[in-house]
Amino acid sequence: MNVGLPHFLTVGAILFALGLFAVMSRRNAIGILMGVELMLNASNINFVAFSRYVEHAVDGQIMAAFVIVLAAAEAAVALAIVLAMYRNFGTANADVVQSLKR
Amino acid sequence: MNDLAIPDFGREIAALLPFLIVAGGGLLVMVTDALVKTLRKDHLSYLVLLVLLSVIVVQTTSGTPEGPVLNGLLLLGNFSRFFTYLFVVIGVLTTIFATGIFDRDGNYRPEFYPLLLFAILGMMVLAAANDLLTVYLGLETMSLATYVLAGGVRGNAPSSEAGFKYLMLGGFSSAFFLMGVAFVYGACGGTGFDQIAAALHSGSAPMPFLTLGTGLMLVGFGFKVAMVPFHMWTPDVYDGAPAYVTGFMATAIKAAGFAILLRFVLLTEPMLAFAWYPVLTVLAVLTMSLGNIVALVQGNIKRMLAWSSIAHAGYLLLGIVAILAPALGGPEMMARAKGIVEEGGAALLFYLVGYALMNLAAFGIINVMGTEPGVDGDQISRYAGLSRRQPVAAATLAVAMLSLAGIPPMVGFMAKFYIFSVVVKAGLIPLAIIGVINSLISVYYYLRVIVVMYMHDTAEDSYQGTEWVSVAAAGLLAFLIIYLGVMPEAFHRGAEIVFRQISF
Question: End-to-end alpha-carbon separation of chain A, Å?
Fold first, then answer.
């Protein structure tokens, strides 16, 4: 079988959908974060695939490297905020933390 | 980004000096706070003000080089300079408001200062971006800093909830945005705006990838500017964050979001105007109407201003719709097209400045009146009788509310007037009528605040504290609101010159 651009895009789309599903269905904050990370990595696959099959240059790979770094930074900030929330509410479940709805 | 040239380092560094000052200043403030133990905490704020003022000085005096820098990653010129001024001024006022509250309560948040500078850096990058890579970097730098600004009040449950919600939905939307970037890149074969423009003008970009990518990117933009249906986070985050951060988010982030949305819409217009036009028209109408209708029933002033900020995003979208209209009109429309596009752009920039002035004035007073985020300090009923206890604060808040409602002679009226007149000139009279009706609805909830302040008796539990520096700064903003409302011409013409530069 000849592996081409559509195959990579399909993997990317499946990964993105899985991430989306995780974000929608998880109650736990860490689970939601993992879903977001999956979605970011889905775009990374697309970037690298497009850079190989469409552009024949490295713009997409540079972009993917930046995304990896930013995803790490985002995870650090996110875990700190979830920790702060856990201290204040005693839970990391997103649906319990609803004190602002009045 | 493809043909790398050896850059002229002297020119590049001179051009990037404002960015370097903000980035270096942020690091300096952070290190100073950690290492210099003898420093009084409020001295950090002077350092921040020094950094921000030196950005203004450098930018005004040095005649920074124009054009693309860093191999086309950033595009410097009037447009990026205009937004740098706006962000720096918002930053100065936010620092003043925040420090006033820290002083009054004796409760310092030293991490606030470097994060504010980093958020401003991200916004400056965003307004100057000329490549999808820098758009994403700017967006994330801005967002990561603001998540912590909103959620970082220690031991305060509402603040951490606001930070959490902002972070989750922000990360979610930026994942959509990034997927969109990937598809636009795949369609155009490059991330640089020049490459995208070239691919779109030649019509070689495959349509499915392009529309899918742009649609996904719109989710990210829509989230940042609080556009319906991506607005769910706004009331909770504006309510839970401390008021000085809310003021910063409502003004600077919205301005940065619209700066990049405007550039991106103009960039993709050659092939996508037919898609942008109906989508943005529907979103503009929904955003205005929902924002104004829900704001009617809010009892909390921060939540009310959150819904009002959604409504204002709708008016701003109307401006973008007007800019797009000529591209789709008949031949007689094409003849007037250039005029409409330029006037529409100028109206948008004017609106962003006016909106920043009036919202900062309002949040400056709310900041002084509140005690702690999320505690019932922000109920409108607590403002009863404010005009007798604190006449200056009440007058300032009244001016801000009248301006938000769009009542002459405030700047809010002129801003709406420019937007609606461009919409009419573009031949979209029904849209202009919807906008005016919305504007009339909004008068009710803005005036309610004034009625409570001036006509109701002081309630038992009303808060007596104050903070004079913040009230004076907000009063100065109120003066500017009236000044720009009475004499908008010179500034409006300046905005037109600024906008002319980014037309592709």
Answer: 58
